[in-house]
Amino acid sequence: xxxxxxxxxxxxxxxxxxxxxxxxxxxxxxxxxxxxxxxxxxxxxxxxxxxxxxxxxxxxxxxxxxxxxxxxxxxxxxxxxxxxxxxxxxxxxxxxxxxxxxxxxxxxxxxxxxxxxxxxxxxxxxxxxxxxxxxxxx
Length: 138
Prior knowledge:
The protein has 138 residues and is an alpha+beta fold. The chain has helices at residues 17-26, 46-58, 84-98; strands spanning 5-10, 30-32, 39-42, 66-72, 75-81, 103-107, 110-115.
């Protein structure tokens, strides 16, 4: 991973905030923050998302590990703290963004400029999201 926190600003605002919110709402491995607006938490799979949601409800002062996606008028904020499977979910969102236009990116390391390829932000291999299913035994 080449960032823990990144701000994505679209080349031609406004971005389709409603479409991204709908994508996040439909993802079984994501949940909308019960304590705030326009923020979603992503986990590797649905079972882990349910656990993360329960932890967030129990302690509204902190987020469990995973990926946070915050929708703002000026762009999208992505904060990542988790394992490779969680990061694969973050990468999915970045791929979705890049498929819809150019984005200028600023990370905790400074301006990254116009990002055109997801590999600029995720240079290391990550699990295929299609393989991140719930464990039927667990």
